[in-house]
Write a structure and sequence with these properties.
This is PEP-CTERM protein-sorting domain-containing protein. The protein has a domain of 161 residues. The chain has two helices and 33 strands.
Length: 323
Amino acid sequence: MNRYFSALAALCCIACHQATADQISPNPNPTTGDIFVEMGNTDFNAENPFDNHGYLSISFGGTLINNAGALLNNASEAHALLEVWGSLDNEGTLGNNGVIVVEHLGIINNSGNLNSGYIIAIRQGGTIVNNGTIDNKATSEIQNAGTIVTNGAFINDGSLSGSGTVVGSVNDSGVVAPGDAAAVHTIDGDWSKTGGSLEIELGGTSDGGGDKSLTEFDWVDVTGDVTLAGQLNVSLLDGFALDDFQQFPIINVGGSLTGQFDGLAEGALVGNFGRSLFITYVGGDGNDVALFTTNAIPEPSTLLLAAVFALCGGHWLRVRRQN
C-alpha cells in the first residue's frame, strides 16, 4: 500500500488543530497502516504511549510533539517507518527499532532521549538538534548526509556513516565510516573515539582541494580535539592502485591529538595492497593522522622508520591540508 511495506490497513489522520494521541486512535497504532500529520501541532502525552508499526509521516508544515514523560516508539521491525518532512519535537522518549528518515528541510528537535536500535537516515538538508541525549546503540546506524547539532550527549556505540556534519562533541565506541564511496565526515567539535573502528576507503590521492565533495579518499575533519583508540580498517575502491610516495591525510585535527589506533604505533605497517601502507600521527601540520606509501624500505620496522623520520624531519609528510 506504500513504498516501504505491505500495508494491512490504512489510518489517515489530518492534524489541522491541537490533538492528543488518544484523539488520533483509542489504542497505539497496532497495524501496518498509515498516519499523516499535515498542518498544525499534534501532541503525544504520557497517558497514552504510542507504538508505530506502520508508516508515520510528518509533512511540511506539520509538527508532532512528543511531550515530556511520553513515549513514541517506532516499533521493533524494519518495516516501521517514521518520515520527517516537517518538525518532530521530542521532549520525552523517542525509541527507534525501525527506520527514521529526516528528509530535506525536516528537523528533529530532541530535548529528551532518542534511543535508536536500527536506522536513522538524515538526508542532505535534514537536521537533528540535540539538547538531550542521542544513544545510537550497537545494533543501530546513523546515515548522516545532513547535520546533527548536539549540545547534549551524543553516544555512538553503533555506526555513524555519511558525508554530513556533526556540530558538537561525539563520544564514539562504534563504527565511523565516512561514505559508501570516498567522502568526508565533519565533526565541528571534539571526537573521543574509545573503541570500535574507523573505516577508510582509498580511491585516489586528492582530498578535494577545499571542496570536500571532490575527495578521492575517506577522511574525517575534526575542528577540536581527537582521542584515538579502536581499529583502523582500510580498503581500496575499485580500480585504484597504490603507488610509491603517496599520502592520505585521513584525520584532520584542529586541536590536540592523543592516543593511537590499536596495534598501530607511529610508522607501523597498516597493510600491503600491492604497495606497503604505513601510518603516521604527525602528518599535516604536525598532529594529523596520515597514511603513506614509500619504496625506500619495503618492510620497515617501526624503529627503523622512526629513524628515517628523525633524519628527514618528517617534512615530506607535513603538507598542510587546504581548507
